[in-house]
């Protein structure tokens, strides 16, 4: 009876405690694995940052009489990407009208292309420009990176026409959450498709241990696997559709409550409200819960090792002592109560 209570009572109290802190635990297995995690991978957009990017830089470099911002916004209006929304909203604020776009194509992890007024244009990151064989002005990228801006370039087949920088504000709690994770002995990596310089700038702001930049959406799960192959127990924290494979690949997937349904379904834990401060609290709770389970199991085994031989009459031949059934029943009930009481201490644990 006591062995049967030792684990489930602690798990139930632990899961209830987690819910009170805004941490939803899908199953006991996720809570168990979370206690041994020693490396956490954080997706940048929507996890470390607020996920509400805005245009902060714009610089034209190409020789053309066309309204380049209008062309760029027209292309981006065909996409559902958060950065595209930022560009569209920037254009609307300037009262620009969108032009018709034909032959639109989204290029995964790089950008997009389409025809505007019979001319083919491309909009995207440095990978896309490199594949087009176009030379990128590194001084402009470095200037953007110093201010934490993600570069987007507009180009035709011959040259880059304009550089646009988009910034996403860090969440207020991001820096403290990472400090708390370090205090728990956990290393932290940031996973992003951003340019290396921009990613490193953001990583330094919050104290990231390892920056994984310019990662294609399809390669996120591979980056998690690389850390696992290094011997780490890895938790992945994300909120987007393209984070789902990485969440499933990690030892423990953790979704932001403000994220997509696909991400939440793929994860073992969900942080309600997208509050990153709940992450170190979840890890601390997992460790405390399984410490209580070990205590419960110790006392349950200890009681059985002592009590069962006495109940079987091992002391009767030597001392004539027999365990009264009433006393034995009371002792068993007391031991069960002690296990439950020890588990209930979790309700008052400070995280």
Summarize the structure.
It is built from 15 helices and 13 strands.
Q: What would your notes on this structure say?
A:
The longest helix has 34 residues. Strand 9, helix 9 and strand 10 form a beta-alpha-beta unit. 40% of the residues are buried. The protein is elongated, with a radius of gyration of 28 Å. Strands 1-13-12-11-2-9-10 form a 7-stranded mixed β-sheet, with helices on both faces. Strands 3-8-7-6-5-4 form a 6-stranded antiparallel β-sheet. The protein is α/β, with parallel strands linked by helices and 351 residues long.
Total strands? 13
**Per the principal axes of the C-alpha atoms, what is the gross shape?**
elongated
Helix content: 40-55%
What is the rounded distance between the termini?
30 Å
N-to-C series of helices and strands: HEHEHEHHEEEHHEEHEHEHEHEHEHHH
Q: How many alpha or pi helices? A: 15
What integer is the average pLDDT? 88
Largest sheet: 7 strands, mixed
Helix/strand-derived class?
alpha/beta
| Rg calc | 28 Å
Order of strands, main sheet, comes to: 1-13-12-11-2-9-10
């Amino acid at each position: 009876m006591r062995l049967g209570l030792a684990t489930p009572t602690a798990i139930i109290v632990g899961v209830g405690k987690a819910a009170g802190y805004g941490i939803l635990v899908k199953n006991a297995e996720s809570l168990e694995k979370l206690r041994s995690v020693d490396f956490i991978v954080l997706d940048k957009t929507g996890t470390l940052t607020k996920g509400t990017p805005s245009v902060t830089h714009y610089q034209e470099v190409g020789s053309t009489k066309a309204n380049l911002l209008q062309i760029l916004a027209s292309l981006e209006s065909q996409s559902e990407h958060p950065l595209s929304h930022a560009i569209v909203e920037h254009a609307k604020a300037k009262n620009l009208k969108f032009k018709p776009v034909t032959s639109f194509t989204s290029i995964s992890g790089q950008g997009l292309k389409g025809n505007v007024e019979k001319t083919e244009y491309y909009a995207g990151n440095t990978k896309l420009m490199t594949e087009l064989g176009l030379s990128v002005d590194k001084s402009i990228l470095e200037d953007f990176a110093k201010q934490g801006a993600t570069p987007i370039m507009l180009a035709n087949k011959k040259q880059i026409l304009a550089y646009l920088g988009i910034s996403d504000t860090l969440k207020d709690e991001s820096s403290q959450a990472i400090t708390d994770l370090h205090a728990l002995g956990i290393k932290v990596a940031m996973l992003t498709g951003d340019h290396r310089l921009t990613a490193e700038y953001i990583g330094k702001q919050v104290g990231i241990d390892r920056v994984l930049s310019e990662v294609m959406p399809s390669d996120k799960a591979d980056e998690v696997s690389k850390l696992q192959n290094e011997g780490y127990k890895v938790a992945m924290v994300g909120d987007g559709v393209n984070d789902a494979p990485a969440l499933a690949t990690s030892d423990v997937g953790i979704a932001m409550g403000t994220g997509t349904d696909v991400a939440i379904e793929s994860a073992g834990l969900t942080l309600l409200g997208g509050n990153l401060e709940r992450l170190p609290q979840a890890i601390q709770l997992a460790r405390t819960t399984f410490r209580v389970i070990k205590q419960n199991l110790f006392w349950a085994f200890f009681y059985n090792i002592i009590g069962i031989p006495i109940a079987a009459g091992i002391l009767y031949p030597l001392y004539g002592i027999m365990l009264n059934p009433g006393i034995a029943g009371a002792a068993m009930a007391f031991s069960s109560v002690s296990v439950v009481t020890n588990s209930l201490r979790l309700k008052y644990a400070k995280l």
